[in-house]
């Protein structure tokens, strides 16, 4: 079995006195699409935040490329988040004052790409996600599905190793949701990007290679790839 790209072991995290994770372990392999499912409040977003280096766990380890993400200093963590990870949230979280093109160009500008090259590349990515023609639109002028596809372009434009998507279709109707999932999975497979996808929707989870379920802050079940998964009981899919 190939080494995981990212591995979380025994994560414990509380928000104040509310426990969110109680010993969750999960692996994300290079290039795979992993769905994380579970009831509301089961700890899915907290797990994603720990894996993406947005939040530090109280206990346990997050290992990425041989480095303990949970122990990295903040400046190295933010560099990793900028260069190797992409994040998409339920409501896109585009910068409202910037055009679609500038939203997608922003991660490249932050990485030191020239403005001209960043805008050119951003335009190509808008095209890939079927939102060419909306370059000058601000997020408020886009439909939910268009905004989410711009968010995907922004998450993938730097060529990250992993994309973290927290209910990316949660605010969309089913057609727009399908378009977003098709665009995400197609592009991720093409570029070999791993995707950790939180969803409560079985139709969305069906786009994934593998699925893990959380209950009360622990992984209770994991579906498996032909190469074999590592944890507990299997989910029949
Ligand atoms: N910032 C916070 N402050 C206080 N409690 C929080 C915070 N974030 C999460 N929690 C609590 O931690 C637990 C796990 O939350 P989390 O958002 O990780 O679950 P989830 O499975 O993603 O839920 P949902 O599907 O509703 O988004 C819940 O009880 C939640 O209320």
From TrEMBL:
Pfam families: ABC_tran
Keyword ATP-binding: yes
Superkingdom of source: Bacteria
Record key words, sorted: ATP-binding, Nucleotide-binding, Transport
Domain ABC transporter span(s) in chain numbering: 6-235
InterPro entries reported for this sequence: AAA+_ATPase, ABC_transporter-like_ATP-bd, ABC_transporter-like_CS, ABC_transpr_LolD-like, MacB-like_ATP-bd, P-loop_NTPase
Keyword Magnesium in annotation: no
Classification via PROSITE patterns: ABC_TRANSPORTER_1, ABC_TRANSPORTER_2
GO cellular component, one term: plasma membrane
SUPFAM superfamilies: P-loop containing nucleoside triphosphate hydrolases
GO molecular function, one term: ATP binding
Protein name listed in UniProt: Macrolide ABC transporter ATP-binding protein
């Amino acid at each position: 079995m190939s080494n995981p790209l990212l591995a979380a072991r025994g994560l414990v995290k509380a928000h104040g006195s509310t426990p969110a994770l109680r010993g969750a372990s999960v692996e994300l392999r290079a290039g795979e699409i992993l769905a994380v499912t579970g009831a509301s409040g089961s700890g899915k977003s907290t797990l994603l935040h720990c894996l993406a280096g947005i939040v530090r766990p109280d206990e346990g380890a997050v290992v990425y490329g041989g480095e303990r993400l949970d122990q990295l200093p903040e400046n190295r963590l933010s560099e990793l988040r900028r260069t190797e990870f992409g994040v998409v949230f339920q409501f896109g979280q585009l910068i409202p004052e910037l055009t679609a093109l500038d939203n997608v160009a922003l991660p490249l500008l932050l990485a030191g790409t020239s403005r001209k090259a960043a805008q050119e590349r951003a335009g190509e990515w808008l095209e890939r996600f079927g939102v060419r023609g909306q370059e000058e639109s601000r997020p408020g002028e886009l439909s939910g599905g268009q905004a989410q596809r711009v968010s995907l372009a922004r998450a993938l434009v730097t060529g990250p190793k992993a994309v973290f998507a927290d209910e990316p279709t949660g605010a969309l109707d089913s057609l727009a949701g399908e378009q977003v999932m098709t665009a995400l999975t197609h592009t991720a497979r093409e570029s070999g990007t791993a995707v950790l996808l939180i969803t409560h929707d079985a139709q969305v989870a069906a786009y994934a290679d593998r699925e893990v379920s959380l209950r009360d802050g622990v992984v209770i079940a994991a579906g498996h790839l032909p190469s074999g998964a590592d944890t507990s009981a299997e989910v029949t899919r």
